[in-house]
Design goal:
Helix 1 crosses helix 2, helix 2 packs across helix 3 and helix 25 runs antiparallel to helix 26. With 879 residues, the chain is of the alpha+beta class. The protein has an eight-stranded mixed β-sheet, with no helix packed on it. A five-stranded mixed β-sheet has the order 17-18-19-21-20, with helices on one face. The chain has a four-stranded antiparallel β-sheet with strand order 10-11-16-13, with no helix packed on it. The longest helix is centred in the middle third of the chain and has 34 residues. It is built from 26 helices and 31 strands. 48% of the residues are buried. The protein is globular, with a radius of gyration of 28 Å. The chain binds zinc ion.
Length: 879
């Protein structure tokens, strides 16, 4: 598998239709933790009329084959061929009944794919290709069939036996055993199969759909977590209601299950009627979960529920089309969160995430279009590009067609494709046909990788009272694609006068002025737009609501940015202007630092931040977002050659400078927000806590912070405030930080989710001592290299969110991390590959660091029997 890049690649263009239909799949499980017997019976019907026989080709991996029979005849090993993950039965008759029996070993399955053990229960993860680790089957999303699942197990060890669909029958057996049968009436691909068996407690509620279906809602967790399910249940009910109101989509079965597990590679999985969740996205109680956790739960519960239509009822033809279900469903969950919380704040967080994670991916060794053309290991393509950029492209349909047009397109999409496995082209066609528009050129977004750049220049003609904007687009060449085309880029603009007032807009060809935001659609390499009756040179408010996944270049003066920060009606533009100004100032200080010059705090930045902090009208959560300086990784992306230490020093210097100048105002705002009222889960209170804790983080840059953090920690009745205080004390090296950490540990050591936070706040601390701390923490009883949440919380955070630690000049961070990647590859290749991607940006650093990182990549690449997952990442990075 080692240099398997071209040899093992799978190409989108090679798609062929599976020649068989499978009418029904009957599965029987004799459940045991050590070994489970799986029997399958399926009826094959050859598609078309031409042929009398056809090979049956199935996928399987790590299966111990017990027996195989076709049309009642037991097959001997000469009747079929197994090669790699493929089993071929040659020349099967047009109608064939296949029966298989295999054994699998859940307790020894550390890859957490297929059937595996988590604590005291067994569960499955099948997307993308885990079903082949359970039984032989055409494991591809375009083979859809109905499933009937019978499970048999010891009743005391496995009292709960769940699968997809409705429970059909159940009964007792001899020797304390029992059985349960589930039937899912909706045909589905194998990746949506799920099974759960074990000793779990449950919380139950119900929801009546708009057309009167009474749906039982159950959340299964381990007994001790029963008091942490309320928010997840409330989020589920909100999601069900929202999808009816906004998308006219109802739930279609009588039961909906959510099961929470501590051992999960991803966030959650949308298996039909049996969602399986990483417990991080289910469990919450105010003392144990932060506001961000609460918001994350709402978003992910919604996301998986929304998949019931966008993903399950209409699924993907093959895995190249992953963004068909993910981009669309992320867009839907973003809209859900925006409708539940603050639309503006949600928008800003989405943009920060896209720019912080997806732009570097587009610019790195794994760049790919939202619909890739090639992969080695599909698990490596559950990326920010497929998900977050994919969602932004769905949002562009919405921007171009409007809510009503978009919903017309969705309606037609379901009318045409319910029950089918389709492609992104089918989605685009539904949107185009429902609205009578041509979207062919828009379709380039699916095939072109890279982040387009839009360069904006302007000209004001005072005599003619005309203001002209010139937009030029250009997509830089990426690792995977040499030639680029022009794209359709919706581009919303507004114009402000010097007083910050919004100007009415009239383009040259329009008869009247109307509105103060105009949606321009850039399609060519360069286009000009002239606004008339503009009485003074305006400040352009560019790219309102962040209308496309592009980088905008315009040479803003600080005075213009200050106007936008203070007055713009568009929350994204306000926030972005503050970010731009802060970025300019920090990068300037970084250059001064590199040249041995003294750093300075910029007066316009001080004024702008004073303005933000003094604003009592705006949503405090928005002000908090505006006050958060661009993070070190984002700043690094703006530099030709990354200056790790310079960025850290400059950002710290600016934060300190702002804090000491604004200390009185910060203290005042902090005091007013820290009002001693008991915790509430409302979005208003979350917003106030967000701004309060941003103020605290600035105050901690001065001598005024420590006492406040200590007092906040003592008085806190919720995890948001607790964590903000402890984190702050650690960052400023407060003498009480260690005591606070150990008190926290004593209180929460049995609580695996809270301990993740304890690991994270230690791994994220900048500076040379952290690597040793991380090494020590790996020996802590609460840590396990086998648990993905622990790996992400400690090792992932150190490598990806602690630039000065990971990029230490002596290379110690790199060596440590490469050791972990190699160790993880033997246990869980998916997680190992995620961790390996920390090296993806190695070419952007100075020569000594480049050399050190390259050596580690080569060391990983040379490991014997390296998984395809890790091999694809490191070999791409090295190319
Ligand atoms: Zn999803």
């Amino acid at each position: 598998m080692k240099d398997g890049l071209s040899a093992n690649s799978i190409y989108r263009k090679d798609y062929t239709v599976y020649p068989w239909d499978i009418d029904q799949l009957d599965l029987y499980f004799d459940i045991g933790s050590e070994s489970t017997v799986v029997r399958a019976e399926m009826e094959f019907h050859l598609k078309g009329e031409e042929k009398e026989t056809q090979d049956i080709v199935l996928n399987g991996s790590n299966l111990q084959l017990v027996s195989l029979s076709l049309n009642g005849h037991l097959l001997s090993s000469s009747d079929y061929a197994i090669s790699g993950e493929t089993l071929t039965i040659p020349h099967a008759p047009r109608k064939s009944v296949l029966k298989t029996e295999v054994k699998v070993y859940p307790a020894g399955n550390s890859a957490l794919e297929g059937l595996y053990l988590s604590g005291a229960f067994l569960l499955t993860q099948c997307e993308a290709q885990g079903f082949r680790k359970i039984t032989w089957f055409p494991d591809r999303p375009d083979v859809m069939t109905t499933y009937r699942v019978t499970m048999e197990a010891d009743r005391s060890e496995f009292p709960v036996l769940l699968s997809n669909g409705n429970q059909e029958a159940a009964g007792d057996l001899a020797d304390g055993r029992h059985w349960v049968r589930w039937q899912d009436p909706f045909p589905k691909p194998s990746y949506l199969f799920a099974l759960v068996a074990g000793d779990l407690a449950l919380v139950e509620d119900n929801f009546v759909t708009r057309s009167g279906r009474d749906v039982v809602l159950r959340i299964y967790v381990e007994e001790e977590n029963l008091d942490r399910c309320e928010h997840a249940m409330e989020s589920l009910i909100n999601a069900m209601r929202w999808d009816e109101e906004r998308f006219n989509l109802e739930y279609d079965l009588d039961i909906y299950h959510i099961v929470a597990t501590n051992d999960f590679n991803m966030g959650a999985m949308e298996n039909k009627s049996l969602n399986i969740f990483n417990s991080k996205y289910v469990l919450a109680r105010p003392d144990a979960a932060t506001d961000a956790d609460y918001q994350g739960i709402e978003g992910v519960i919604g996301h998986e529920y929304f998949h019931n239509w966008t993903g399950n009822r209409v699924t993907c033809r093959d895995w190249f089309e992953l963004t068909l279900k993910e981009g669309l469903t992320v867009f839907r969950d973003e809209e859900f969160s925006a409708d539940m919380q603050s639309r503006a704040v949600k928008r800003i967080r989405v943009v920060r995430d896209l720019r912080g994670r997806q732009f570097p991916e587009d610019d790195g060794p794994m760049s790919h279009p939202i619909r890739p053309d090639r992969y080695v290991e599909i698990n490596n393509f559950y990326t920010a590009t497929v998900y977050q950029k994919g969602a932004t492209i769905i949002r562009m349909y919405h921007t171009l067609l409007g809510e009503a047009g978009f919903q017309k397109g969705m309606k037609l999409y379901f009318e045409r494709h319910d029950g089918q496995a389709v492609t992104c082209d089918d989605f685009l066609a539904a949107m185009a046909d429902a609205n009578g528009v041509d979207l062919e050129r828009f379709g380039r977004w699916y095939s072109q990788s890279g982040t387009p750049q839009v360069h904006v220049s302007d000209h004001y003609d005072a005599a003619a009272q005309k203001y002209t904007l010139t937009l030029k687009q250009h997509t830089p060449v990426t690792h995977d694609q040499q030639t680029k085309q022009s794209l359709v880029i919706p581009f919303a603009v507004g114009l402000l006068n010097a007083k910050g007032e919004e100007l009415p807009l009239q383009l040259e060809n329009e008869t009247d002025a109307s509105g103060s935001t105009r949606l321009l659609v850039l399609e060519k390499a360069q286009q000009e737009y002239t606004f008339i009756n503009i009485a003074e040179a305006p400040v352009p408010s560019l790219f309102r609501d962040y209308s496309a996944p592009v980088k905008i270049f315009y040479d803003y003066s600080h005075a213009q940015l200050a106007t936008l920060i203070a007055y713009d009606s568009d929350a994204y533009v306000r926030w972005d202007a503050a970010q731009r100004m802060a970025q300019d100032v920090i990068l300037e200080q970084c250059r001064r630092h590199a040249n041995g010059k003294e750093m300075k705090v910029d007066s316009s930045l001080l004024r702008a931040f004073r303005g933000i902090l003094s604003d009592h009208q705006a949503d405090p959560a928005l002000l908090a977002e505006a006050m958060i300086l661009p993070d070190e990784d984002y700043l690094a992306e703006q530099m030709e050659v990354v200056d790790v230490d310079g960025i850290h020093a400059a950002r710290k210097f600016i934060k300190q400078g702002l804090a000491s100048d604004l200390v009185a105002l910060l203290a005042e705002r902090y005091a007013e927000l820290n009002d001693g009222q008991p915790y509430q889960k409302t979005s208003g209170d979350m917003a106030r806590r967000a701004l309060k804790n941003v103020c605290l983080s600035y105050l901690l840059e001065t001598s005024a912070g420590e006492s406040r953090a200590i007092a906040q920690l003592e008085a806190s009745d919720n995890m948001t405030d607790t964590l903000a205080a402890i984190n702050g004390l650690i960052l400023v090296d407060s003498p009480i930080a260690d005591g606070a950490l150990s008190e926290f540990e004593t209180r929460w050591r049995e609580d695996t989710l809270v301990m993740d936070k304890w690991f994270t706040i230690q791994a994220i601390k900048p500076g040379p001592g952290t690597l040793n701390r991380v090494r020590e923490l790996m020996q802590h009883p609460a840590f396990s290299i086998q648990n993905p949440n622990k790996v992400r919380a400690l090792i992932g955070v150190f490598a990806m969110l602690n630039p000065t630690g990971f990029h230490a000049a002596d290379g110690s961070g790199y060596t440590f991390h490469a050791d972990r990647v190699i160790e993880l590859d033997g246990l869980n290749p998916q997680i190992a590959a995620r961790m390996a991607s920390a090296f993806n940006r190695w070419k952007r650093y100075d020569d000594p660091r480049k050399k050190l990182m390259k050596a580690q990549l080569q060391r990983i690449a040379a490991v014997d029997n390296l998984s395809g997952d890790v091999s694809e990442i490191v070999n791409n990075a090295l190319r």
